[in-house]
Amino acid sequence: MSWKAAFRRFREADPERLHFAAHSHHYWPDVAFEAQRRCWEDAARLADRKWERIFGEVIPRAQAGIAGILKLSDPSTIAFGPNTHGFLLRLLSCLPQERAVRVLTSDGEFHSFERQLRRLEESGRAEVTRVPTEPFDSFTVRFRQAAAEGGRDLIYLSQVFYNSGYAVPDLPGIVAAVPEPEALVVIDGYHGFLARPTDLSAVEDRAFYMSGGYKYAMAGEGACFLHCPPGLAARPPDTGWFAAFGALTAKAQGEVPYGADGSRFLGATFDPVGIYRQTAVLDWLAAEGITAAAIHDHARALQEAFVAVLPRLGIPGLSAAALVVPLEETNRGNFLTFRTPQAGGLYEALLARNVITDHRGDRLRFGFGIYQDHKDVAALAERLHGLERPAFV
């Protein structure tokens, strides 16, 4: 199956580029271009009244699309923001301020969260327990046991680890193991949303879930979202004026008002163009019948085709044995991570051949998405052919 025709604008912008960094900036389908133009036209046509359309039509459509993908019963629990870091700060503001907050997480979390957490540790405002992600086959049991010990204010865990591709199984079991009802449980779904089938119905009343359009949702920047369980963290101290958007015309009296739904986690004025793009992409996926399961199956098929050609290429560091998460592991996201001392050199050598990948330290990542097909994998193998060791050492 090939959906490449839907990505004509990105492909024609650089026809010779092979983009295999499909774990970060995915190509956008052409419908996103039309959506971006529609956002501008709405601003020109409606001026100040554009916000009525944004909050009355655009955002509800995006919420409904995301809720359907995640099997959420109430789309209004979803809040949008320009990035997930803003949501993280609002969540942190809900934790105790009079003492160091107690956090349980893994040692495989993305830079944004990990940097903020380390800074809180430096200032004595956080006490952190990090459960090692490896060995992967025992991670879920080890993390669930740590969660069951209790005594934490925040439990934060990725659905799919960014630096390996390992997908955590039994998230509902981990969430259920947390004994304190007031503890905040946050699932970072940035490498899981629209990369793997995700059913949050069992934990929608207990766990926050954050993701965005920059990666697999193919909508670019500025379209991040947070699912907010009803009643939890009802009045974030870090708050923007959009958190009470529906009450702006009323005279302020008593406590600072908040929406009862996901809007309580909104910030302040934002550029809505990313949400326009996201809505268009979700509408296109629905119209084409492209599900998260179909996207994941497509990516896995391309992964298998890629690994199958590696033995005949004979490139040091690129082999099935060098995979951080083995190909036969079903708990895997839509990218492959190779552990090799030559990761940086390989990345540069591939970039010189107009092949876009990604590396972090000794880990080289190849991503796979629906703007690629088997012809792209064959083209990738052709450019890898003859890549001599001195070219990347």
Task: Summarize the structure in short.
This protein has 393 residues and is an alpha/beta fold.
For the sheet with most strands, the description reads: 7 strands, mixed
CATH class of the largest domain: Alpha Beta
Please identify the structural class as seen in this structure: alpha/beta
Domain module count: 2
- DSSP helix count? 11
General shape: globular
The CATH superfamily label of the largest domain reads Type I PLP-dependent aspartate aminotransferase-like (Major domain)
Explain what this protein looks like in three dimensions.
- The protein has two domains: 4-30 and 290-391, Aspartate Aminotransferase, domain 1, CATH 3.90.1150.10; 31-286, Aspartate Aminotransferase, domain 2, CATH 3.40.640.10.
- The protein is globular and about 70 Å long.
- 36% of the residues lie in helices and 13% in strands.
- The chain contains eleven helices and twelve strands.
- The protein has helices at 8-13, 30-46, 50-70, 84-93, 111-122, 139-148, 171-177, 273-288, 292-313, 343-352, 374-384; strands at 18-19, 78-81, 101-106, 126-131, 154-158, 184-188, 207-211, 224-227, 335-339, 355-356, 358-360, 363-367.
- The model has no long low-confidence stretch (mean pLDDT 95).
- The chain is of the alpha/beta class and 393 residues long.
List the topology elements.
Blueprint (H helix, E strand, L loop, with lengths): L7 H6 L4 E2 L10 H17 L3 H21 L7 E4 L2 H10 L7 E6 L4 H12 L3 E6 L7 H10 L5 E5 L12 H7 L6 E5 L18 E5 L12 E4 L45 H16 L3 H22 L21 E5 L3 H10 L2 E2 L1 E3 L2 E5 L6 H11 L9
Parallel strand pairs: 1-10, 3-4, 3-5, 5-6, 6-7
Antiparallel strand pairs: 2-8, 7-8, 9-12, 11-12
